[in-house]
TrEMBL record:
Record protein name field: TUFT1 protein
Region (Disordered): 116-135
UniProt cross-references to PANTHER family, sorted A to Z: GDOWN1, TUFTELIN
Coiled-coil regions listed in the entry: 29-105
Record flagged with keyword Cell inner membrane: no
Keyword Coiled coil recorded: yes
GO BP terms in the entry: intracellular signal transduction
Keywords: Coiled coil
InterPro entries reported for this sequence: Tuftelin_GRINL1A/MYZAP/CCD68
GO cellular component, one term: I band
Length: 135
């Protein structure tokens, strides 16, 4: 009977120790489940932030592409206008040369007319280049 008593006490202590260990393991499992749930929430929040940032990045990239396209279009327009300006400058230079040539020709004709009129006894007043330019 004392032997049986000791055996039962020993079994009871072993059972209590096992129960305490199981409770400890069970507590660890609950703590792990809580931590796991917390981590899942954090991961979901981070995924949402990443998705939002990706959307913002795509939007910015679209805006940059549109700005580049606008700049290229503006550059093309400016180049076309520069070409027109250059053509007009060349035309102006050509016309100025024509005007000079015409004035020289006019002065020669005036001079020849004066010579012929002076031979005939009539006087004619020669017009200067500046009078024709101012007209």
């Amino acid at each position: 009977l004392p032997q049986e008593h000791r055996t039962l006490l020993l079994k009871m202590k072993e059972g209590e120790a096992e129960l305490a260990r199981l409770r400890s393991v069970e507590g660890d499992k609950l703590a792990q489940q809580d931590r796991s749930a917390q981590l899942e929430k954090e991961v979901a929040a981070l995924r949402e932030k990443i998705h939002h940032l990706d959307d913002m990045l795509k939007s910015q990239q679209r805006k940059v592409r549109q700005m580049i396209e606008q700049l290229q279009n503006s550059k093309t327009v400016i180049q076309a206008k520069d070409a027109v300006i250059q053509e007009l400058k060349e035309r102006v230079a050509y016309l100025e040369a024509e005007v000079r040539s015409n004035l020289e020709m006019h002065d020669r004709i005036e001079h020849l007319i004066e010579k012929q009129v002076s031979r005939g006894g009539h006087s004619a007043r020669a017009r200067s280049k500046s009078e024709y330019v101012s007209r």
